[in-house]
Specification:
This protein is mostly helical. It has a domain at 1-29. The protein has 1 helix and no strands. The two termini are 17 Å apart. The mean pLDDT is 70.
């Protein structure tokens, strides 16, 4: 993605593990997905796919 030095995108497995860890330890998970709509291959996963209970304090898009 533009302005991403490595072009790395978090896998769904990593996002799930981060989400579960944050839930267990009462930590806020923030995911900067400013360029999530710019990709050259398959669409990347997004943190919005997590939290089936929709337990969001806020979403800024």
């Amino acid at each position: 993605t533009p302005n991403s030095p490595t072009g790395h995108v978090a896998s769904m497995d990593w996002l799930k593990r981060a989400y579960e860890f944050c839930q267990e330890h009462d930590i806020i998970l923030a995911s900067d997905e400013a360029y999530s709509e710019l990709y050259f291959e398959d669409a990347p996963h997004t943190a919005l796919e997590l939290g089936k209970d929709n337990n969001y304090d806020g979403i800024i898009q």
